[in-house]
């Protein structure tokens, strides 16, 4: 193609990198779900790029374990089994607890206000998918407030795996209402700079999310 870069927010990105980011965001936002097939030609057409950067992006997705070879042509978005899910949530509990602890020490008043605004939107969301989107922003806000770029980098890696979980836990009966309460309690602990409580609440929040996730996997 004539164009060898994609402009993203005013910053030129190599096509391979831009294509990888676009596919990663499509996974995170649920456009591509576990079990979906990805084909080079179809993705190239959708993103209006040649197949070369798509092939490069596919290679990175494979190396990260996000997609696996399918029967015949193309790749399949990976499905996580119960062991994968338990391991993922164990790591998520550690990271979320650490982020909440640091956020309680470093979050500014505007960041606390932003958390409250996101929670308000979360509680007013009309669909479980919208709840999931706002929930992701809520947790990203806490990680940003932790003021630790290494922790934030670990979260970004974890978000890729979280994208493979499929159906949101907010589709489970009573989970949204419980999450409302858990979020509000966590925000107040951060606002009060109670690091120990914020850590404990964040960990408990993730354990409850795991319970809902396993319920989904068991057909609940």
Tell me about this structure.
It is a single chain. The protein contains 9 helices and 5 strands. It has 2 domains: 73 residues, Winged helix-like DNA-binding domain superfamily/Winged helix DNA-binding domain (Arc Repressor Mutant, subunit A, Orthogonal Bundle); 136 residues, GntR ligand-binding domain-like (Four Helix Bundle (Hemerythrin (Met), subunit A)). The strands form 2 sheets. The protein has a 3-stranded antiparallel sheet. A two-stranded antiparallel ribbon has the order 1-2. The longest helix has 25 residues. 32% of the residues are buried. With 220 residues, the chain is mainly alpha-helical.
Write the layout of secondary structure elements.
Blueprint: E1 5-8, E2 11-14, H1 15-28, E3 37-38, H2 40-47, H3 51-63, E4 67-69, E5 75-77, H4 82-106, H5 109-124, H6 128-145, H7 149-162, H8 175-191, H9 195-217
Antiparallel strand pairs: 1-2, 3-5, 4-5
Can you name the CATH architecture of the largest domain?
Up-down Bundle
Mean pLDDT figure = 92
Q: Given the helix and strand composition, which structural class is it? A: mainly alpha
Overall strand count: 5
Give the helix tally: 9
List the domain count as a whole number: 2
The protein's oligomeric status is: single chain
Give the strand line-up of the largest sheet: 3-5-4
Which topology of the largest domain does CATH recognise?
Answer: Four Helix Bundle (Hemerythrin (Met), subunit A)
The first-level CATH class of the largest domain is given as Mainly Alpha
Question: Which homologous superfamily in CATH is the superfamily of the largest domain?
Answer: GntR ligand-binding domain-like
Radius of gyration: 19 Å
Helical content, roughly? Answer: 55-70%
Order of H and E elements:
EEHEHHEEHHHHHH
Q: How would a crystallographer describe the biggest sheet?
A: 3 strands, antiparallel
- Tell me the span between the first and last alpha carbons: 49 Å
């Amino acid at each position: 193609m004539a164009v060898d870069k994609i402009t993203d927010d005013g910053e030129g990105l190599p096509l391979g990198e831009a294509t990888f980011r676009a596919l990663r965001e499509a996974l995170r936002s649920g456009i591509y779900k576990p079990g979906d097939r990805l084909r080079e030609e179809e993705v190239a057409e959708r993103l209006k790029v040649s197949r070369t950067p798509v092939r490069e992006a596919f290679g990175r997705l494979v190396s990260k374990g996000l997609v696996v070879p399918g029967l015949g042509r193309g790749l399949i978005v990976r499905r996580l089994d119960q062991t994968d899910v338990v391991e993922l949530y164990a790591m998520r509990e550690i990271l979320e607890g650490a982020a909440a602890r640091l956020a309680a020490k470093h979050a500014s008043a505007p960041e606390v206000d932003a958390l409250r605004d996101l929670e308000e939107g979360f509680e007013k969301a009309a669909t479980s998918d919208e709840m999931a989107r706002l929930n992701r922003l809520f947790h990203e806000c806490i990680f940003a407030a932790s003021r630790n770029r290494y922790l934030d980098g670990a979260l970004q890696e974890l978000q890729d795996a979280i994208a493979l979980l499929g159906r949101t836990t907010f589709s489970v009966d009573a989970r949204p209402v419980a999450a409302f309460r858990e979020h509000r309690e966590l925000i107040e602990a951060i606002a009060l700079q109670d690091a120990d409580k914020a850590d404990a609440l964040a960990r408990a929040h993730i354990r409850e999310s795991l319970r809902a996730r396993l319920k989904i996997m068991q057909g609940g």
